[in-house]
Design goal:
Layout: E1 28-29, E2 36-38, E3 44-46, E4 69-81, E5 86-103, E6 111-116, H1 125-132, E7 151-157, E8 166-186, E9 189-210, H2 212-218, H3 247-253, E10 254-275, E11 288-304, H4 306-310, E12 322-343, E13 346-364, E14 369-387, E15 390-401, H5 405-409, E16 413-418, H6 433-441, E17 459-464, E18 473-484, E19 494-504, H7 512-523, E20 534-535, E21 549-551
Parallel strand pairs: 17-21
Antiparallel strand pairs: 1-2, 1-7, 2-3, 4-5, 5-8, 6-7, 8-9, 9-10, 10-11, 11-12, 12-13, 13-14, 14-15, 15-18, 16-17, 18-19, 20-21
Length: 553
């Protein structure tokens, strides 16, 4: 994006002016009402009195407009007539691809750090004085900033440009084998049986992130320039100002991650189709039918490394192991019957219907649980052609959608979601006693009211995950339509349709912004269903480490 003028600048959402991220290269410290920013000398600039000094990080130049991809595919088809009425068919396919994405360098993204400001040689005297002003005892936050201990806990947004871009490398392999037999019992009675097996494998490597535990350790430095805790070969890290991080410290905190994923699918089934052995008296053609059975089994496994599981990756986030599967057995039947043909105002009139029964069993090995359920789906409708130019149709359907493997099998996982407005941020609750109290009751320290930072670049922390107790969602659909194909205008066709769809027990992830809006604008109860989904940082933010965020799992 940096090679082209139209994409070189990150744009602010409000007015499309040049913008960027609060996690900037000098380093933003979330203390006080407006925060502070480091300069090259390690001093802290008060952005309340010097707002023009703020330097948002322009991440666009690092990002790709088009993602490079290398892909190979191969397919084999086979067909053999065993007799005049029986045929074998088969297909095999293989695909291999490699995709590398590149995004801007990682950062600390307002994770909290303990800074020993009194004797840290990476800080200027001016910065020590600023930190001393925040080293006070706040009774509302007993675990943060214990007064006079020489340590300040602060959320820091420092872009670690010294580590290079964050690269994600995806290597995918997929193969599928399908085979079956089909044939005819008579000219109007047909059968088919089939089986299919497929497997996909994905290797994922995430390069140039930062290890939170190591950086947390490395920013606490003795006057002699060594780590306060020298274990694990700690190298002191100076993130207090642009370009101050040494190569040795960068190598110590750098984190590369890996995850292996795989899915399998096995399907087998068969059906019988053909004409009905009878026709309705006023119809010139017999009806048609199909009946069949099907069995399907799907498995999914995700094997992230220890750092992804622990959420130790600041920039790429966390991932959780998944080992889940489900089996489904189905039986179905469909029928279409012509009722009237070729009479006045009824060129064609037909009725159609269908029914399907499904029995599900799922097993979530990583959670040590499972579930089973069954459901029916069906349809009933018809179409009427009063004249050759016009066809009218109506259909009522009861449909279902069973939860997929991720929706039932993914454990709760820290991640990142979208939100543009936090009702407890900045001065929003000031002057509104009810909102102020609710903000305090949902995790904002009383001393931070009016000082809490809002979402960063439209993002907050969240928690995502599945639910093994989910059951299929159900929908009821009315469809009424007409097709107009006038004989006096060959090739012309016009269609009008009306749909009315109602869904019950919908499976969805509630948007993070909706949770905030309902909690602070409608529910107004810290113990309510939506407010209880909110976990704030010690400073009241919705950005921070993996314990912070909105639970939308």
């Amino acid at each position: 994006q940096g090679d082209r003028k139209f994409s070189n600048e990150a744009l602010a959402a409000a007015d499309f002016s040049p913008g960027g991220s609060f996690t900037n290269a000098p380093g933003f410290v979330d203390l006080g009402p407006d925060g502070f920013q480091f300069d090259a000398a390690g001093n802290l600039i008060d952005l309340g009195t010097n707002p023009d000094a703020f330097q948002p990080f322009n991440f666009n130049p690092y990002n790709l407009l088009q993602t490079p991809q290398e892909k190979w595919t191969a397919t084999v088809l086979a067909r053999y007539e065993l007799s005049d009425s029986v045929e074998f068919y088969g297909r095999g396919s293989f695909a291999k691809s490699k995709v590398t994405t590149v995004v801007a360098p990682t950062g600390t993204f307002f994770f909290p750090f303990d800074i020993n400001y009194l004797d840290n040689p990476f800080l200027s005297g001016q910065a020590r004085g600023v930190f001393a002003g925040f080293d006070v005892d706040d009774p509302s936050t007993p675990d943060v900033n214990e007064g006079g201990d020489g340590i300040v806990s602060a959320a820091i947004g420092r872009r670690l440009t010294e580590l290079g871009t964050r690269d994600s490398i995806y290597e995918n392999k997929a193969w599928q084998v399908v085979g079956g037999f089909k044939g005819d019992f008579t000219d109007s009675l047909h059968w088919e049986v089939f089986a299919q097996y497929a497997k996909t494998k994905r290797k994922q490597d995430f390069i140039n992130d930062v290890a939170y535990d190591r950086l947390f350790q490395a920013v606490q430095v003795t006057p002699a320039g060594a780590c306060v805790d020298p274990s694990n070969g700690c190298v002191p890290a100076n993130i207090f100002g642009p370009g101050n991080l040494s190569q040795e410290a960068g190598d110590y905190i750098r984190l590369d991650l890996h995850e292996d994923d795989s899915t399998t699918q096995f399907i087998t089934g068969g059906f019988l189709s053909g004409d009905l052995p009878f026709s309705v008296p006023m119809a010139s053609k017999p009806g048609a039918f199909v009946v069949g059975v099907e069995y399907r089994k799907e498995t999914s496994k995700a094997r992230p490394d220890a750092n992804l599981i622990a959420g130790n990756s600041i920039g790429f986030g966390g991932s959780t192991p998944i080992d889940a599967q489900y089996d489904v057995k189905e039986a179905y039947a469909e029928l279409k019957i012509p009722l009237v043909n070729d009479v006045s105002f009824v060129q064609e009139l037909s009725l159609e219907g269908g029914i399907r029964y499904a029995d599900y069993k799922n097993k979530i090995k990583t959670l040590g649980t499972g579930n089973s359920y069954s459901n029916w789906s069906w349809k009933l409708g018809g179409d009427w052609k009063p004249v050759n130019d016009l066809r009218l149709r109506v259909m009522y359907q009861r449909s279902v959608r069973a939860p997929n493997i991720n929706e039932i099998g993914q454990p709760k996982t820290p991640s990142t979601g979208d939100a543009t407005f936090d009702p407890c941020a900045e001065a929003n609750p000031v002057g509104n006693a009810a909102l102020t109290q609710l903000c305090i009751d949902t995790g904002v320290p009383a001393g931070q009211i009016g000082l809490v930072g809002g979402p960063i670049a439209g993002q907050i922390n969240n928690f995502i995950g599945g639910n093994p107790d989910l059951v299929p969602e159900k929908s009821s659909t009315w469809t009424i339509g007409a097709v107009f194909q006038p004989t006096f205008l060959p090739g012309f066709s016009a269609t009008v349709d009306f749909f009315d769809i109602k869904v019950k027990k919908a499976i969805l992830q509630i948007p993070e912004q909706s949770v905030l809006d309902i909690c602070y604008g409608i529910e107004m109860d810290a113990a309510g269903d939506f407010c209880s989904l909110i976990a704030r940082s010690p400073t009241g933010r919705l950005n921070g480490d993996t314990s912070v965020g909105v639970d939308v799992s």
